[in-house]
Amino acid sequence: MNDLLYVNGGNPLEGTITVRGAKNFVSKAMVASLLGESPSVLRNVPQIRDVAVVTGLLELHGVTVKSDPEAGVLDLDPSNVESAHVADIDAHAGSSRIPILFCGPLLCRIGDRPINYHLDILRQFGAVVDKRPNGIHLRAPRRLQGTKISLPYPSVGATEQLLLTAVRAEGITELSGAAIEPEIMDLIAVLQKMGAIISVDTDRVIRIEGVDRLDGYSHTALGDRIETASWASAALATGGDVTIKGATQPEMMTFLNTFRKVGGRFDVQEDGIRFWHPGGDLKSIVLETDVHPGFMTDWQQPLVVALTQATGLSIVHETVYENRFGFTDALRQMGATIQVYKECLGGRDCRFGQRNFHHSAVISGPTPLAAADIEVPDLRGGFSHLIAALAAKGTSTVRGISLIDRGYESFQDKLVALGADVSRD
Ligand code: EPU
């Protein structure tokens, strides 16, 4: 497969595209289907590689998955769930973090499974963890027991692990310090449809009353707010005008506020949101990423590219991941003026302060970007490189482009629909 994209940039992106269900919800809802005694139907499913990976993992565990990719519908039938071999799981999942979320549902449903990760939570439910030469073996000697757990940081994955495990455990589970991202709320909605009893209390406390049986669900996934923000940032960075069908306001509010502060314009419509650059100067800002309802970390990289075109000094403090500014090396190579710092700049002290992590960035703009030969580092950083190449005059070569297929549905078709001049060899 050709893994290289030529991007002849410098033109505004203009037009209309559609964003479907959120990668970081769809993959978890697919896992939740394991818990049902009857089949589930999931709609608004994007055609991305992460969905293919989870489909393969479910199939390895005996789930029958029927897919209508055009319609975005998945039928998931767990009636023959069985164990899978760890080597097959490893070979299939690659670097995906999804396999760990299989642990709770499988322990609830079919007892012993050789899997790894998120072990502390599973231990607290009564799972027995044996480290063996070929990996980690998890057992549920008896039905998992509800428990009280407090997370030191509101981790999305750990909260999902707990939800997927507690719904079928015996008794009540109380989680404090929970993550409350919209994708988690949608997962809770799915679990409620299946028969779970879950309440989300104030101050990040989630209570789950375990039940004996869950059925399948029928659900339409919430839209992908990371993909929406990525295309919105691309519109801003290129001086363009992009309407995103399928984008919804409630999950985007924090992003929309920031987009407006930078000088971008948006219009919330019946079936999407239009984002555009109104002309004139963009404004620099001070920004801190945070867990929901804060400015999400995955919005940071695409917006930073747009901030290279804003007038003055912008400060961005990344507080969710310790090392999420690596992608700025390529932007510097293209002419951006960005410096990264170990200090917590522009906001409160975070857990990465004084710990040698370059987790604050100062961006000085506006700087014209020049075409370059760049390598995609990861999914979000990679899309940000793509935005930079679209904003830069001349032809950039973007290598490792297939990484972007993990989370951006048909991105090359969408680029073409927005008038971008891109080609593979
Ligand atoms: N963390 C720990 N220990 C853990 C788990 C997490 O210290 O056991 C730390 C992480 O190192 C990180 C922070 O907690 O510093 C937040 O991690 P979290 O667990 O919330 O992230 P995740 O569940 O692994 C999901 C998304 C990410 C998104 C984050 C934050 C999926 C598959 N991934 O990751 O999305 O950035 O939540 O919203 O849902 C992406 O889509 O490209 C992506 C990276």
How much beta, percentage-wise?
25-35%
Most strands sheet: 5 strands, mixed
The coarse silhouette is globular
Structural class computed from helices and strand pairing: alpha/beta
State the total count of DSSP E strands. 23
Query: Given the structure, what is the number of helices?
Result: 13
Report the radius of gyration as a whole number of Å: 22 Å
Termini Cα gap: 11 Å
In short:
With 425 residues, the protein is of the alpha/beta class. Helix content is 30%, strand content 25%.
What does this structure look like?
With 425 residues, this protein is α/β, with parallel strands linked by helices. The chain folds into 2 domains: 217 residues, Enolpyruvate transferase domain (UDP-n-acetylglucosamine1-carboxyvinyl-transferase, Chain, Alpha-beta prism); 198 residues, UDP-n-acetylglucosamine1-carboxyvinyl-transferase, Chain (Alpha-beta prism). It is 30% helix and 25% strand. The chain has 13 helices and 23 strands. Strands 16, 17, 18, 19 and 20 form a 5-stranded mixed sheet that branches. Strands 21-22-1-23 form a 4-stranded mixed sheet, with helices on one face. Strands 2-13-15-14 form a 4-stranded mixed sheet. A hairpin with a 2-residue loop joins strand 6 and strand 7. Helix 1 runs parallel beside helix 7 and helix 2 packs antiparallel against helix 3. The longest helix is centred in the middle third of the chain and has 13 residues. The protein is globular, with a radius of gyration of 22 Å. It starts with a strand and ends with a strand. 50% of the residues are buried. About 2% of the residues have low confidence. Bound molecules: uridine-diphosphate-2(N-acetylglucosaminyl) butyric acid. Uridine-diphosphate-2(N-acetylglucosaminyl) butyric acid (EPU) binds next to helix 1, helix 6, helix 10 and helix 12.
